[in-house]
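Thread: quick sanity check before group meeting

JM: Hey all, I'm pulling together slides for Thursday and realized we never actually wrote out the predicted structure for the chain we discussed last week. Dropping the sequence here so it's in one place. If anyone has concerns about the input, flag it before I start.
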Amino acid sequence: MSDAALGLTMLGLIVVVIMMGFPTAFTLMGLGMMFGFVALYDPAAHWLDNKVFDLMVQRAFGAMNNDTLLSIPLFVLMGYIMERGALVDKMFHSVQLAFRRLPGSLAVTTLVICTFWGIASGLVGAVVVLMGVIAMRPMLNAGYDTRLAAGVITAGGTLGILIPPSVMIIVYAAVAGQSVVKLYAAAMFPGFFLAFLYLVYVIGWAMINPKVAPKLPPEKMKAPISPAVAHIAASYSRFMLPALLMAVLMPAKALRSGIEGVQLSWLKLLGGLLRTLVPVIIAVVCLGVTWWYVTIYSQQGSEAEPVKVVQLMQKSADTPAAASPQEPVEAAGLQELSGSDGPAADEADKDEPLQDMSAGEGSEAPKAEPVPGGFYTGFWVACLIAVGLLAWYYWKFDAEQYEILTMLITSVMPLGILTFVVLGVILFGITTATESAAVGAAGAFLMAWQAGTLDFQRIKEAVFLTAKTTSMVCWLFVGSALFSAVFAILGGQRLVEEWVLSMNLSPIQFMLLSQAIIFVLGWPLEWTEIIVIFVPIFLPLLQHFHIDPMLWGVLVFVNLQAAFLSPPVAMSAFYLKGVSPSHVTINQIFAGMMPYMLIVILCMVFMYIWPGLTLWLPNYLYGG
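JM (edit): ok, ran it. Output follows.
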């Protein structure tokens, strides 16, 4: 059997063995060792002197020397600490009250919490299980269709692996030699756009067929009003903004409560007024930061950068990147292992993505870009819209709305601030992804400690699960590094490239072919196997077809959402089945998930038709 045939046999065998249930990482290493031993066998040398053992050591060291992977345990720890700290229960209740007047309010709340919690944790299994415990029974008890309840939990729970900070993006960046920071920026809008499409589908289904999501009874749509808030509203005005303003300016009436259990002070009144103004403060901060960044910070240029940024070699979408310092060493090692400077060495050079695995870490300096032409008009339009929305919100801001806002502030705002800080410092080039992950993990500890829900047992569980997940990812990288090197030495990569190029495909045809293959692979395989085994096969072909690797990568991220929603290995369905009532069948869960697979495809169509959805933000922040 020729070397190329051995390579293709090796590629097909990995799928069969994984589907048989063998661990992916050790399957990759085992097949890499077996086929590598055959490829590098020298009859004149002792079998212990086979070069495959040296190759294994080189590849293992190269994978473990990858700085990009340092952020994975920190982001995973951040997610597990928040999940073990049980911080989502109060959040679900407060958000449900905030959206109580929307059609399918429980489903909408579930989707919003899944998106928000997924961003903070980045863990698919944990989010699906947690939301299954919290939201599944309330939706079923309220008369919701089982397919709607199951679909919104499984689809919403997978968004955490797409919207930054995401472990999947870090793994792809390490495999493809891309910048984690740029990929985070590129995945931001598509992730939220996919969540928006899910939301439109849920609300639309509930409006067309109200029977699938009946309205909640009145008693479940009211927030309890505390005696102190009721006293202030009765003393001044039923609308809380003028009531609290008058209470701060003229506190005598409020302080003479005479009601048992009501103890007010001027500082408490001032605190209540500040809580009332939180929506205004958020709007002002968001608009102010946008104005400052676009018109001031981004115009300073490289000479006035306030942040010293680590400059690392990045692969460009349009031009070949400079060679990584590790590449000559790796290529030389493979030439020596193959025993000659012939074709095997040339084929080994094509194992480029994993040779350049260390190129993804580092912070990106925002480049000096001119102020977009329509920015000023758009900014003032946004200001008018914000003023209009705030006026509409405060027009009926009574005691009940005040209590809901207070619950949102205490349950949602800490997590929102942490998420904003973690993403902001990455996107603005202040820190690397690893440093930002450390900030996020420390913030998660502080949040759980402040909530009083964290003890030694839960910390031990979170650390153990973090070590387990991190070990899995690291072993995957060691196995995939060895597998890809042997595959390249056998000429498998060259054979695949020649086969694709012989088809004379246009760029759009290649894009459709590659994404269709990944979509089909998502049915039997997990995203980890697809990223570390099959994505490196397509990466060298992107330059030939002039396809931006960042755009292609984000399309893969969105495409892999279907891997969690596609039978028979739809892990989200099995996660949910484990915590659902016994009368909920796996077929009902599968039926609820299927429409979201079509929505994923629709999102990919939008991304291809409108590449700016993916590329505008990284190009604006870091230059095109």
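AS: nice. The two ends are 47 Å apart (CA to CA). The mean pLDDT is 80.
JM: adding both to the slides.
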